[in-house]
Specification:
This protein has a 6-stranded mixed β-sheet. It has helices at 15-31, 63-72, 139-147, 164-178, 219-228, 231-234, and strands spanning 2-7, 36-38, 75-82, 85-92, 95-100, 121-123, 126-132, 152-156, 182-185, 194-196, 202-205, 211-216. The chain has 240 residues and is α/β, with parallel strands linked by helices. The chain has one domain (2-239): 4-Layer Sandwich (Nitrilase/N-carbamoyl-D-aminoacid amidohydrolase), CATH 3.60.110.10. The longest helix has 17 residues, at 15-31. 27% of the residues lie in helices and 26% in strands.
Length: 240
Amino acid sequence: MLAACIQLHIELCRPEENLGRALRLAESALSQGAEILVLPELFQTGFCYEPSGQELPPFPSLDPFRALAREHGCLVIGSVKSGRQNLGFCLEDDGLEMRPKIHPFGPEKEHFDGGSFISPIATRWGMVGLQVCYDLRFPEVSRLLALQGADFLVTIAQFPPQRQAQWRTLCLARAIENQFPHLACNWAQGGASLIVNARGEAQAEAGNNECIILGEVDLAVRDEVRREIPCFADRRPEIY
């Protein structure tokens, strides 16, 4: 299955502009055959704490993406601010599932509470392990998702450009240690979005501009890697 990371330039507190660009890029990715569309963390508003940055169920700002999902049968992944939660979402033509960001970073804690549960999301494309930005630095999150049956990992983020080398290393590491594909979508201001296979090889990699990268989510390679190096069977959690 073909996935697209949409590395969007995010204007703070300008949802209409961000939404328009996101939809244009999403349409472009779909025209190139993408079935899974991944957008950055808080892609519509950025870390906007004005009323325009707030979203409540049933999340009407996602209606254009609901229309895309119905028309194209695609999966859309991103996040929205709702109350004191940064909610990652998976949106399909038959519904919306959300998972909270577990670890707010630094000053985000004034506006966000960390989530209280971790679990993958069942979709037509498999079980999605979704984490948000700073969660990438905590390997426990992706490991728990893997142990719970996630088929692939998705990280949506606003990592800053000065930490780009750390971002890239962490993205590769999460794929290698859990032996599953990783779709890592950053905002354009931070750059370096990645699509990584279960061997930890970058299939596609973005620069520092607004762009789309495409790559296959190959679960057969995941299964092959896990047979070659049976890390999960060899775990010894009783002594960890």
